[in-house]
Design a protein that fits this description.
Elements lengths: L3 H8 L3 H17 L4 E5 L2 E6 L2 E9 L2 E6 L12 E2 L6 E5 L7 H13 L1 E2 L13 E2 L1
Antiparallel strand pairs: 1-2, 2-3, 3-4, 4-6, 5-6, 7-8
Helix pairs in contact: 1-2, 2-3
Amino acid sequence: MISIDIVNYNDTQTMEDKAICDLLSTIITEQLPEATNKIWHRHPVWFLNGNPIVGFSKQKKGIRLMFWSGADFDEEALSVKGEKFKDASIFYNSLHEINSEDVKRWLEKSSRIQWDYKNIVKRKGILERIG
């Protein structure tokens, strides 16, 4: 189930961005039914066992879909890589740019390939692989 705060976040977007956010919310929630979701640092984020997995945000370049451990997915389309951590992203500006099968594959990988962001502060900025 999508939290009301995420529904409200999506509703504040322009018509095109709202359609993108609504579709991403639906796909993520369907593919990760065990995940919890909430607004975290002002953006929709899904968590597995308290660890952030996937989220999206409105940025100048469009709606950014980000996977916290996406740099290890070996996926060419997730080309926007983080500099300090293991995240990877893709930007969308139109609903038609979203390939649902790609997103589903990335979500499947996100549940198997995880870095422990939940305990990064306790480890003083050091990431450890889960599993």
